[in-house]
Specification:
This protein has about 725 residues and is of the alpha/beta class. It has five domains: about 5-200, Rossmann fold; about 210-400, Rossmann fold, CATH 3.40.50; about 410-510, Winged helix-like DNA-binding domain superfamily/Winged helix DNA-binding domain (Arc Repressor Mutant, subunit A); about 525-610, HRDC domain (DNA polymerase, domain 1); about 615-720, Orthogonal Bundle (Arc Repressor Mutant, subunit A), CATH 1.10.10.1390. Helix content is about 50%, strand content about 10%. The longest helix has 21 residues, at about 580-600. It is globular, with a radius of gyration of 29 Å.
């Protein structure tokens, strides 16, 4: 291929663009020169063009290995727009019938097809290997190449077989393309594809137009999301959830609240998924609620927000998914909801997997937790993870930079941490280093005799959380690094060694605490403080009359919601979280009358649009649970039959009794606890001013576990409040 080919003319001819973006031209020239090529380019950077244009120019057919059928179809449709001949691009996967597959093969063998998209599973079939052996192949493009690596966020074992299959079909240059890859993943990709000598093109990961924010995940999350969407009317957005069940539930709640939303996950039939995807691209749907199956290769430039309902399993996944916002350079809000409990659930899901896989999974989760909990610039943390330094202290476009925390001096603590890393011979990960610092004699610490080190326990005046902050900010400060080959081992940099000898000032801001009680500022703005106090006084009066604790009548969160949306009828009151039909009828009249008088006297216009409507389907599930309890079915069996963890079933039971429905779970309680134990916990709640489980655990935890306390709380609320 001639080096002096006028690529700008070709670009204009095929795609109508006047200029290339970033490294596109250099990448295309490298491919045209027949060299192996590695392309790391963030979502929206124009990756596809890097193999599409050379494929159209070169002799033969380019084989594009791509993981998603929907992605292939979109790209084939797009390429066909640049040519009068539909045969110019085809895909070959399990969705084709025999006649369609024959047509593809005819066009390829006739030399009409310049791009042939193949799923990795299809590539490995004997028939296809035999067929492709006859084809003149210009090059192989491996899209979403991070799927090769176990350290990548979307690992697929079949990607590991690509190189051996290429060797059978016939060697040609390989182009590997990905939007997200750490140094570790990059090495994996090149090694597995046999392209260690390739030319590498790495674009900046910085997307200055994206705003990053992490919010605490509370019981009010659905309400927060509805409020956010209403504040951004008509804008396109994606909400990612980890489970299909949550996807369907949330989509239904959004629709019940007049938001044009649809669910999308891999469990749906192909037709529904394709239609949903097309409707979103065509702006017929505003919001997609999806599992991570959605979005790969979706070319929609004007997605204005991406919300993570659950914390992602890795920062690569997070980056890829948030990268679908603002691809046109316009507004892109990336909001993530985080609670440490979600992290613990994800760790639990790993149990039973091979040990190596669990280890990788945990380390990836730790990186995500570090990002969520950090109080320093999120952009800086994210770019550092991908091996790129961000020189600014403040990006002015993330929650931490817009609301910075005050800093404290930590020079001595950093020196202490660096000396411990040195003392353990730079051969251990974060957790181990923190255990030595805090004097925690774990099995691993004792096995390596690190409890005998002089520095063992030298930092025991601070907790593990504090030392995590020190180590994270030391990484960003360039004093330590994580080794690529043995991912996670902490090593000292020359700067770190210099610091030990001659310490200098090291200012840190402590991490955000997502375990503390959280008051959402956006809600306190709307909260009518005067009414809230009046409602609390009324609740106290009713509680006194009935000789029960106030929280049994309505939770604080329910009173806050009442003081925000002003329900004045029993029907409206039933829409308040934690207020079901039973409680509304039993206690509601006095509360509605108080709210009505307050609105009249203060000429308050009630914000009807803020009322979050519940979904019938959810209550159907609750009805079924109540009926099972009436029949005295073992609670563990009920959880299994509903596909719930036992914790999730307890959440359902909490919601049922908190909203005013009576449940008799004595039959189950007596099968797992003595009557004296039940009475002991019951009396605690009778005398306590709060029903908070953490407070109960502090008081009773030596004698009872969380499950037992929660079960007796359900009995208590049911018997005294309902």
């Amino acid at each position: 291929m001639k080096k002096d080919i006028d690529l700008t003319t070709q670009l204009k001819h095929y795609f109508g663009f006047d200029t290339f973006k970033g490294d596109q031209e250099a990448i295309i020239r490298n491919v045209l020169d027949g060299r192996d090529t590695f392309v790391l380019m963030p979502t929206g950077g124009g990756k596809s063009l890097c193999y599409q244009l050379p494929a159209l120019i070169m002799d033969g057919t380019a084989i594009v290995i791509s993981p998603l059928i929907a992605l292939m179809k979109n790209q084939v449709d797009a390429i066909r727009q640049v040519s009068a001949d539909d045969g110019i691009a085809h895909f070959m996967n399990s969705s084709l019938n025999r006649a369609a597959l024959d047509q593809v093969k005819t066009d390829v063998l006739a030399g009409r097809t310049k791009l042939l998209y193949v799923a990795p599973e299809s590539l490995t079939k004997d028939d296809n290997i035999e067929f492709l052996h006859q084809v003149k192949i210009s090059f192989y493009a491996v899209d979403e190449a991070h799927c090769i690596s176990e350290w990548g966020h979307d690992f697929r074992p079949e990607y590991r077989r690509i190189r051996p299959i290429i060797s059978i079909i016939g060697n040609a240059p390989v182009v590997a393309l990905t939007a997200t890859a750490t140094d570790k993943v990059r090495g994996d990709i090149k090694k597995n594809l046999g392209i260690l000598d390739c030319t590498e093109f790495v674009s900046s990961f910085n997307r200055p137009n994206l705003y990053y924010e992490v919010r605490p995940k509370t019981k009010e999350i659905d309400k927060e999301i509805i409020k956010f969407i209403r504040q951004n009317p008509g804008k396109s957005g994606i909400i990612y959830c980890l489970s299909r069940k949550k996807v369907e539930e949330l989509a239904e709640i959004l629709r019940a609240n007049d938001i044009n939303a649809r669910a999308y996950h891999a469990g749906m039939d192909t037709l529904t998924r394709t239609q949903t995807q097309d409707d979103f691209v065509m702006d017929d749907i505003d919001v997609i609620v999806a599992t991570i199956a959605f979005g790969m290769g979706i070319d929609k430039p004007d997605v204005r927000f991406v919300i993570h309902y659950d914390i992602p399993k890795s920062l690569e996944g997070y980056y890829q998914e948030t990268g679908r916002a603002g691809r046109d350079g316009g507004e892109g809000k990336c909001i993530t909801f985080y609670t440490y409990k979600d992290l613990q659930k994800l760790e639990k899901f790993m149990e039973g997997k091979p040990v190596a896989e669990q280890d990788i999974g945990r380390q990836l989760l730790q990186e995500t937790a570090a990002y969520a909990e950090t109080s320093i610039c999120r952009r800086r943390v994210l770019l550092h993870y991908f091996g790129e330094e961000y020189p600014e202290e403040n990006c002015h476009n993330c929650d931490n930079c817009l609301h910075p925390k005050s800093k404290v001096e930590a020079m001595n603590e950093l020196k202490m941490a660096l000396e411990v890393i040195q003392a353990v011979k730079e051969n251990f990960k974060v957790d181990h280093v923190i255990n030595v610092l805090t004097g925690n004699p774990t099995e691993e610490v004792i096995a390596h005799m690190h409890d005998d080190l002089d520095c063992f326990g030298c930092g025991d005046q601070k907790d593990a959380r504090f030392w995590n902050t020190i180590l994270r900010q030391a990484l960003l400060g360039g004093y330590i690094y994580k080794e690529v080959e043995n991912y996670g081992l902490l090593k000292l940099t020359p700067e770190g060694l210099k610091f030990i000898k001659k310490p200098v000032s090291f200012m840190i801001s402590e991490d955000n605490d997502f375990d503390s009680d959280y008051v959402d500022e956006s809600q306190t703005c709307a909260l009518d403080e005067t009414l809230f106090k009046m409602l609390k006084d009324l609740r106290k009066k009713v509680a006194h009359e009935k000789s029960i604790p106030p929280y049994v009548i309505f939770q604080d969160s329910s009173l806050e919601a009442m003081a925000t949306v002003y329900p004045v009828t029993i029907e409206e009151l039933k829409n308040i979280p934690g207020v079901g039909e039973g409680k509304a009828k039993r206690y509601g009249k006095a509360f509605c009358e108080l709210i009505y008088r307050h609105c009249e006297e203060n000429e308050i216009e009630r914000p009807d649009d803020l009322r979050v409507r519940t979904v019938p389907n959810k209550s159907k599930n609750k009805v079924s649970i109540i009926q099972s309890i009436d029949r005295k079915v073992d609670l563990k069996d009920i959880a299994r039959s509903k596909g719930l963890d036992f914790d999730e079933l307890l959440d359902e039971l909490d919601a049922i009794v908190d909203s005013g429905t009576k449940l008799d779970i004595d039959y189950f309680l007596k099968s797992i606890m003595d009557t004296d134990q039940i009475d002991d916990i019951f009396e605690y709640f009778r005398e306590s001013e709060t029903d908070d489980i953490d407070d109960a655990l502090d008081e009773l935890g030596d004698d009872y576990d969380e499950e037992q306390i929660r079960l007796v709380r359900i009995k208590f609320i049911s018997e005294l409040g309902n």
